Amino acid sequence: MTSAWVGERVRLRAKEPEDWEAFFAFEEDSDAVRNGWRLHPPRSAAQAKKQATEQAEEESDLDEINLVIATRDGNAPVGSINTHQIDRVHGTFAYGIGIGTPHHRKGYASDAIVILLRYMFFERRFQKAEAWVYSSNEPSLALHRRLGFVEEGRRRRSRYAAGRYDDEFLFGMTVEEFRERHDA
């Protein structure tokens, strides 16, 4: 049996209450948190447990999803991936991804992105994916270029973090570009 949610290195799965510890630990790396979006004040273990339980109990949507990226064999959480800004009229969506620092540079992000795009393009009939990446996140910029995303725009000085302003790059990939690069 083959699952559409399993790649070469990872599996995408729903969040479980016990995942709270891994994600709570990932929050300790402030630079990695900033690369994803924004730094928040520390939260308690009780808050992290509560959030994990609430997310595990949420009803899932076919298009707006929030999944754990887990190791293929051990099923241990290494990060998360989600879709947002779903536009069913025009067939576009955006996604965000975060990998815990101990799991960087192992191919987990690229594998997870390909799995997600395959689902959104070939199961949900979307025609274009978008991602925004901050200029200070050089590994993510390189990842998106390596995966075949096209740089479509740049918002100058659109974010302030760690005492500096960052530009924000907009990347896009159409279903045709995905098919050509990552033959489904």
From TrEMBL:
GO terms for molecular function: acyltransferase activity. Keywords: Acyltransferase, Transferase. This is GNAT family N-acetyltransferase. It comes from the Bacteria. Its EC number is 2.3.-.-. It comes from Nonomuraea marmarensis. The keyword Transmembrane helix does not apply. InterPro entries: Acyl_CoA_acyltransferase, GNAT_dom. Residues 10-176 form the N-acetyltransferase domain. It is an enzyme of class 2 (transferase). Coiled coil: none annotated.
